[in-house]
């Protein structure tokens, strides 16, 4: 099992259910959810910048779609998800106040004496005020335009602190 997925699940107190290889019945629910999102929410060219004027507009579209989908009777249970949620609410728990860091990248400690971090066998600079702090590095993009993005999670939440072209290993 993927250790990052398990850490994510533990952080949010959820169980990750996996489907069995070559078993269409066990993966049908996931595929159906993706199909709904693709058909009803995401524009066909998948470039959201031209379709939604702001992130708030995208959030509003997501909320409207969820209201619509959750009010429909489910084909198998013959119940509306909104009604089932009301019954299951007592079993739910709050989402943790801190986000899981998986989306930020791979954790790296900035040394106490130099504001550089190692990522994929190359060195990248970070602001000097982060000496001794933990940061997260990840790739962004592919090919000649690929970059390394470095994020620090402080009291105000996650902040991008550096962005670099890929450095040569060594």
Verbal overview:
The protein is of the alpha+beta class and 170 residues long. It folds into 2 domains: 3-91, no CATH class; 101-165, no CATH class. 32% of the residues lie in helices and 21% in strands. The chain is built from 5 helices and 6 strands. The strands form 2 sheets. It has a 4-stranded antiparallel sheet, with no helix packed on it. A hairpin with a 2-residue loop joins strand 2 (116-119) and strand 3. It is elongated and about 60 Å long. It starts with a helix and ends in a 5-residue tail after the last strand. The relative contact order is 0.09.
List the helices and strands and how they pair.
Elements: H1 3-11, H2 24-40, H3 48-51, H4 55-71, H5 81-88, E1 106-109, E2 116-119, E3 122-125, E4 134-140, E5 147-154, E6 157-165
Antiparallel strand pairs: 1-4, 2-3, 4-5, 5-6
* Main sheet summary: 4 strands, antiparallel
Runs with pLDDT <50, length 5+? none
Question: Could you tell me the strand content as a percent range?
Answer: 15-25%
What's the mean pLDDT score?
85
Compute the gyration radius: what is it?
21 Å
Q: Could you say how many structural domains there are in total?
A: 2
Order of helices and strands: HHHHHEEEEEE
Anisotropy-based shape: elongated
Describe the strand arrangement of the main beta sheet, using strand numbers.
1-4-5-6
Helix content: 25-40%
Distance between the termini: 32 Å
Structural class: alpha+beta
Number of helices: 5
Number of strands: 6
């Amino acid at each position: 099992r993927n250790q990052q997925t398990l850490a994510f699940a533990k952080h949010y107190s959820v169980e990750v259910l996996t489907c069995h290889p070559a078993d269409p019945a066990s993966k049908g629910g996931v595929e159906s959810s993706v199909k709904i999102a693709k058909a009803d929410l995401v524009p066909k060219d998948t470039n959201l910048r031209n379709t939604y004027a702001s992130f708030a507009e995208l959030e509003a579209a997501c909320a409207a779609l969820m209201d619509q989908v959750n009010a429909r009777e489910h084909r198998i249970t013959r119940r509306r998800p909104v009604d089932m949620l009301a019954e299951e609410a007592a079993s739910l728990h709050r989402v943790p106040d801190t986000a899981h860091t998986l989306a930020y990248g791979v954790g790296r400690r900035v040394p106490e004496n130099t504001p550089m971090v190692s990522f994929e066998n190359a060195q990248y600079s970070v602001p000097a005020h982060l000496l001794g702090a933990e940061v997260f590095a990840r790739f962004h993009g592919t090919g000649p335009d690929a970059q390394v993005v470095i994020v620090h999670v402080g009291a105000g939440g996650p902040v991008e602190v550096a962005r670099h072209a890929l450095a040569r290993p060594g």
